[in-house]
Amino acid sequence: MEKIGRFGEFGGQYVPETVMNAVCELQEAYERFKDDPAFLAELHDLYRNYAFRPSLLYFAEKMTKDLGGPKIYIKREDLNHTGSHKINNALGQVLLAKHMGKKRIIAETGAGQHGVATATICAYFDMECEVYMGREDMERQALNVYRMELLGAKVTGVDSGTATLKDAINEAMRDWATNIDTTFYCIGSVMGPHPYPTMVRDFQKIIGEEAKQQILAAEGRLPDCVVACVGGGSNAMGIFYDFIPDKGVRLVGAEAAGRGIDTPDHAATISRGDLGIFHGMKSVFLQNDEGQIAPVFSISAGLDYPGIGPEHAYLHSTGRADYVAITDEEAVQAFEYLSKTEGIIPAVESAHAVAAARKIAPTMSPDQIMIINLSGRGDKDVQQIARYRGVNLNV
Amino acid sequence: MSNRIDAKFAELKAQGKKALITYIVAGDGGYDLTEKAVLEMERSGVDIIEIGVPFSDPIAEGKTIQEASLRSLRDNNTTLVGVFALVERLRKQTDMPLLLMLYANTIFRTGTDKFFARCREVGIDGVIVPDLPFEEHDEFADACKANGVYNISLVTPASHGRIAKIAAAAEGFLYCVSSTGVTGVRDQFSTDFDAFFNEVKASAKIPYCVGFGIRDGERAKQMGAYCDGVIVGSAIVNQVADYGTEAVPAIAKICQDLRSGLDQA
């Protein structure tokens, strides 16, 4: 029997019985609304008039000349309302929660971008919002914490475990299990139990749909390569999905190598992980020989996660997508490079994609085309990059 | 293949008694403490023991068991290999049913067939996997069956319409979670127990026991009235938090209190 919510062997619904009924309820609601014309019309109206879609597909002329390879286009998800692709998914899920009659939204956040996006939509819809965030991430991303509070959300620090994204997810799941009747868990990436990986991808696939139309309009043909950063993997699934059937389009995910994949300090799941079951899904995880989940490390709070969404694990296993590991140093250099070359300050997460593009572009020819998904803007990271470079901003 | 869990419930039924089931985190306070505590719990009237294998990210647990898991891993470097060795030692000293409570990844990463073969070898009678709902029971079903190990099913007040199908497929005993949320002692319950247990009773063909939040004899008496046994975890684990390697007398005292309360249910 083919099980539901599987991508090959990956995926599934490995959650405690207490939340299983809520997972089933969500699954039914999503099945009901995902093709409902009224729901989709409402969602697309919000995409357009609230989130500022479609986002630009920008021709990066100077970067193209500098790297001497393919024509490089940048999909500007950083220009969305709230400054990243996370708004696409938050809009979809909170709208769905509203239709399901839920009054309270909880979310986890790493870099704070998903938390900000969720808090934003909750403010818009007048819904109660609580965001779980690792204590360490609250320090790295203090600005986003304040931003969420301005938007009326309660931000709850998580001290358990490694005090980062995975621990925030653990705590959000415990909250969900406790407040199951009233609460909707708005997961920020293409991970967790079915239907989340599919649902979040569907709310993000607009990135790739737009990019395809835009590149066809600009160049009259499909790109040769699409590059995106991968933590859980939502912006990458968003831009990849519409290109999956187009076999000539190479799909590349950039994961976080931290201080290097030969050190213990990285978050390079595909490069160094093993098949496992965690956070509701069978996928690839960084773990020890007995299945204890490994502490991970990255300069980027948004990529600092020991797993990856099951559809990425599947795309990797079938060879449809490639995954490369980018170190902190490479990401910081790319952060500075894009700022100086194009006048665009990328999120440190997105800088991993820019770094991968800088490695791949020289191996391609000028008659080829590459699209980089710039998942978010870098204002939130400026202080941390300064610290990394030893610059004292006195703030 | 006969299972010690079935034999125990048959024995209790013949005696007109209810099952007292307790939980302890393996290696919290050291393997020696776990070994002594298990044997002392049996002497204090406990019928079945769940041995928790600590996991880095125990999402179904409240603070008490989260912290115990962390202590066990961090302070004592507890491993699954070590827990199996502990069970091997225990099996030479007791014939009571012993279960492992652990997260799916611990089994999966070890290798499902290898894990359950080792369970049979050391004398483990069942497993409780809190992140493996009914819908994913197939994951371990073949290996459980091949090795005569029960995979205990859970139902909760939030299971609603799913209770019947879960209960129909359950083996050993049905683990009824008293309230939504995570493990831990509770001052009060908001669950409508009559409605919940009526639904369980209507479908369960095997004994059903209640856990989550039971901390003393008074509550064991109150909750035991609804079913065939009670399960107590955090109240035991709290003693290890308080007394460390010297926790055995405190654990014995709690178990005696639970036993006498349950015997009045």
Radius of gyration of chain B: 17 Å
Q: What is the helix tally of chain B?
A: 12
**CATH topology tier name of the largest domain in chain A:** Rossmann fold
Largest sheet, strands/sense/barrel of chain A: 6 strands, mixed
Q: What is the mean pLDDT of chain A?
A: 96
CATH class of the largest domain in chain A: Alpha Beta
Q: Strand content of the residues of chain A, in percent?
A: 15-25%
Largest interface summary: A-B, 40 and 43 residues
Low-pLDDT segments of chain B: none
Low-confidence stretches of chain A: none
SSE blueprint and pairings:
The complex is a heterodimer of chains A (395) and B (265).
Chain A: E1 6-7, E2 10-14, H1 17-33, H2 37-49, E3 57-59, H3 61-67, E4 71-76, H4 86-99, E5 104-109, H5 113-125, E6 128-134, H6 135-140, H7 142-150, E7 154-158, H8 165-178, E8 183-185, H9 196-204, H10 206-219, E9 225-229, H11 234-240, E10 250-258, H12 269-272, E11 274-278, E12 280-285, H13 310-317, E13 321-327, H14 328-342, H15 348-360, E14 369-374, H16 382-388
Parallel strand pairs in A: 4-14, 5-6, 5-8, 6-7, 9-10, 9-14, 10-13
Antiparallel strand pairs in A: 1-2, 2-12, 3-4, 11-12
Helix pairs in contact in A: 2-4, 4-5, 4-9, 5-7, 9-11, 10-11, 14-15
Chain B: H1 4-15, E1 19-25, H2 31-43, E2 48-52, H3 63-76, H4 80-91, E3 98-101, H5 104-110, H6 112-122, E4 126-128, H7 138-147, E5 150-151, E6 154-155, H8 163-169, E7 174-177, H9 193-203, E8 208-211, H10 217-224, E9 229-232, H11 234-243, H12 248-263
Parallel strand pairs in B: 1-2, 1-9, 2-3, 3-4, 4-5, 6-7, 7-8, 8-9
Helix pairs in contact in B: 2-4, 2-12, 4-6, 5-6, 6-7, 8-9, 10-12, 11-12
